[in-house]
Every structure is written in C-alpha cells, then in structure tokens.
Amino acid sequence: MTNSLKNISLGEFKIDHYLSTISNKSMFISIIHMTLQGCEREVAEVTNGTSDEIKKESIMRLSWALVHSKQPEDVQRGLAMLEDSLVNPGSPLQKREKLYLLAVGNFRSGDYSRSRHLLEQSLEIAPDWRQALTLKKTVEDKIA
C-alpha cells in the first residue's frame, strides 16, 4: 500500500482525499506511520547526485507525514522543517502548500490562531482552495 501512496502527487494533496475516505481510524494511523517511515527512508537515501527538486519533494512528503502524525514530537519536527523551507518557498503553489501544511501542524498542536493566520496567507495565494477553506472553518469553530 505504501508504494501506491508514494506515487500520489503530493503537490496537489490528492493523498488527503484518499486518506479522508478511510473510515477506520486505526488503519489511518497505520498508513500515516508507514508513510512516515517510507518518507524518512526516502530522505535518508537522497544523495548528493540527486537534483534539488527531488530533494525538496522528498522533504515535502516527509513534512506532510510528520504534521499528520499522532506523535506531538513528529508534528513539531514537521513544523520546523516547513518553517525552514519557507526561506526559499519556491513557486506560489509550493508556498501555498507549505503554508497549508504549517496550518495543519499548528492546528494539530492546538495553536489555532497561528493556524488561522497561515491559512489566510495560503488563501491569499489561492482564494478558492476548498481544502484550506474547510480547515479555516474548522479552526474558526475551535476558536469560537
């Protein structure tokens, strides 16, 4: 199953839709754990001969898995990686994705105001992005 997850385009976050269709929470946690292990292995295997783009994609997949982990230390590690990557955010689409993942991690850590701020920044880039709009509503419900 991890091979099929690895092949899903992280850039478009299709994996979120796939995982959201899983009704069994323990299965979801197992998939996240397997994805996290696979991403960590992938980042470790990236060598000096690998292009910067491939390295960045591997780090983004690992960041995604970390901020979705049930372990608070993993979430914090993912947040740190994403914050570091915002120094050179890349294209507007890449920046939007990084801001969104930061919002997810902050939401999962209980920092709802920071999450909302990051979502607003993400929505400045893509105002109609349903995924960010949905999370923003959830964040605002938590704040209210």
Automatic annotation (TrEMBL):
Keywords: Membrane, Mitochondrion, Mitochondrion outer membrane, Transmembrane, Transmembrane helix. GO terms for cellular component: mitochondrial outer membrane; peroxisomal membrane. Its main location: mitochondrion. InterPro entries: Fis1, Fis1_cytosol, Fis1_TPR_C, Fis1_TPR_N, TPR-like_helical_dom_sf. It is a single-pass membrane protein. The keyword RNA-binding does not apply. The keyword Nucleus does not apply. Coiled coil: none annotated. SUPFAM superfamilies: TPR-like. It is found in: Mitochondrion outer membrane. GO terms for biological process: autophagy of mitochondrion; mitochondrial fission; peroxisome fission. It comes from the Eukaryota. Belongs to the FIS1 family. This is Tetratricopeptide repeat protein.
